[in-house]
Amino acid sequence: MGWLSKFFKGASNSRVSRGQYSGRSPYIDEQSESELEDLDRAIALSLSEQDQPKGKEPIESAHQLEEDEMLAKALQESLNAESLPQKNGETPPSPPRPVAIPPNGRRICAGCKTPIGPGRFLSCMDSVWHPDCFCCDACDKPISDFEFSMHEDHPYHKNCYRELYHPKCDVCKDFIPTNKNGLIEYRAHPFWMQKYCPSHEDDDTPRCCSCERLEPKDVKYITLDDGRKLCLECLNSAIMDNSECQPLYIDIQEFYEGLNMKVEQQVPLLLVERQALNEAMEGEKMGHHHLPETRGLCLSEEQIVRTILRRPVIGPGNKIIDMVTGNHRLVRRCEVTAILILFGLPRLLTGSILAHEMMHAWLRLKGFRSLSPEVEEGICQVLAHMWLESEITSGSSSTTITHTASTSASASTSSSSTSSKKGPKSDSEKKLGEFFKNQIETDPSAAYGEGFRVGNKAVTKYGLRTTLEHIKLTGSFPY
């Protein structure tokens, strides 16, 4: 049995590199010709010893041969079961099965399927390879590094694997770093799923005032004169002055007429800057305001308001310039003196704010008094949500939402046949509309958020007309 130990000694140099990171070199030197000749002579000598009886010793029984085979198998398995290096505390994969060698002793490359001759070769992934045949699944170039990565049973260069599967920050475009525990940690916007490094929440990275997305380093947001930032997608449909807002105002008036809720009085609509809106809010005695920033206001007091008369242009550094403003005196002729909307917001957001403030005006003009913030702001948000739904639903019109929201057959008036003048929406604009809807639906505040959810449930169950009648009688939503 002396040949047995020499056989395994010659095979003990073989190592299998497997797993994402292997700390051992996968290269193996083929046995020299002299070693192979020694091995052949040892095998021949052993076989001749088996065939010739030695003195009185009996020929090995079948049982003895079986034990020798089991011993050989056990020795081979023990050599292949050497512990593999660990990385970052991870448990190494279980030792692979030994590479099967054909009866003729020739190894077959798993890549090109041709025999492997004398020289260097690789032993990994339960197979043997020519060095030039063990290639990265991404770049298709040979893997010659001591370490390589695995994904779904495919090998990769470590750099190729990182480029393909390591998450990158959507803001700085760099690989998201690991935290102190060695784990990849990042933030993601709940709607847009924009992934970014946690550090960008505190490093003054600009955020769009409309859609909330952070400014990527390869894109420059527009800076409005009041300091707000506007992304290019929101800028594409932004409403910047009073004249641009008038067609949208008419569209929403028709939406209310389709609901049989026409606002009889002509309420002025003014587009204003942030400072003018805040000043008007301080002079207003009525109303509830959505903090931290108010973007619309329904006024009941006489005031002088500075409004935007001409659309600004984009100047150097992506800042808007040449904006013309003027004072507008509000005169009280009814319960509502004007509706103010913050300028520079995309059309769908401007429209939803206008639909909300229009409902405030309708409630005051119809004699709804002393409503709680949850009820008044909640029903106004329901109307804003309904208008958004009518805008982003393909092929919809104001009348489609009218019949969905109201159970009254008398809602069919001469204005019901008037279809909305809005044109087809791009996919990006529809997505933006879905975001504004989602903002209303997930608002955490008691008045605007919970008020909407309770009010929307009531309108869905009883219809808009019945819900409004119940609010006027009881000051609360029907349950």
Description:
- 37% of the residues lie in helices and 13% in strands.
- The protein is an alpha+beta fold and 479 residues long.
- The relative contact order is 0.07.
- The strands form 9 sheets. A 3-stranded antiparallel beta sheet has the order 1-4-5, with no helix packed on it. The chain has a 3-stranded mixed beta sheet with strand order 13-19-14.
- Mean pLDDT is 77; it is low at 1-33, 49-65, 78-100 and 395-421.
- The chain has helices spanning 2-11, 33-51, 62-80, 158-165, 232-235, 242-258, 274-282, 347-365, 373-392, 398-405, 427-442, 446-462, 464-474, and strands spanning 27-29, 107-108, 115-116, 120-124, 127-129, 149-151, 154-156, 187-188, 195-196, 222-223, 229-230, 238-239, 269-272, 296-299, 304-310, 313-314, 320-321, 324-329, 338-342, 345-346.
- The chain starts with a helix and ends in a 5-residue tail after the last helix.
- It is built from 13 helices and 20 strands.
- A hairpin with a 5-residue loop joins strand 16 and strand 17.
